[in-house]
């Protein structure tokens, strides 16, 4: 039997770790660290540094390679196949390092509940030959870190917040009847496709990390600066994690459409 702990570690700052997260790491028999393409080695280094700070050499760690997603397949089909491949990589690593079972920890960027597929991948393990129980230790999300960095609330008074992706914002535009929209997983700067009238944006990359970058202001004036900064940072670091919050004054936006 494998007891799998999915531990939210925040957005790269070791100070984001909760006491529960540290306790779960120390209780593990093995901590698995994902390794992606070479230009994202910094992400592996950050996880390794967190392990060194929390458990030292008392809990063994092991790296495993994350397979790439097939860009040729339709998006949802490609993601499903990708998750199957990741589940197989988890299973192989666990079997190699814990052949008799035990407690395994995976350090999840942000929180496992928000646009992270760790729970869906873990379900594939349980549906296969590996018996597994799953524990989730919540962490600070990138949206929490974004709101804190800009010192703004995520919701307007008595109003809902919609959390969506850059893909959906590009395809569907501004959601009807919504004043506040939080956007994640946007590699194409979908905000540039919106009518900027009456809209404010709060953007952040590498939230909570030493290289944190923040920009905010009216969407029309700020969008080009965000695109330029995003391009610069991605070239410098080889990877980028960012998200943003949009607030729209509906009356001003409607007036500008007339």
From TrEMBL:
Catalytic activity: precorrin-5 + S-adenosyl-L-methionine + H2O = precorrin-6A + acetate + S-adenosyl-L-homocysteine + 2 H(+)
Enzyme class name: transferase
Keyword line: Cobalamin biosynthesis, Methyltransferase, S-adenosyl-L-methionine, Transferase
GO BP term, example: methylation
Top-level taxon in the UniProt lineage: Bacteria
Pathway involvement of the protein, from the record: Cofactor biosynthesis; adenosylcobalamin biosynthesis
UniProt-listed Enzyme Commission number(s): 2.1.1.152
Molecular function terms from GO: precorrin-6A synthase (deacetylating) activity
All copies of domain Tetrapyrrole methylase, residue ranges: 4-220
Signal peptide: none
Coiled coil stretches, renumbered: none
Protein name in the entry: Precorrin-6A synthase [deacetylating]
Native source species: Sphingomonas citri
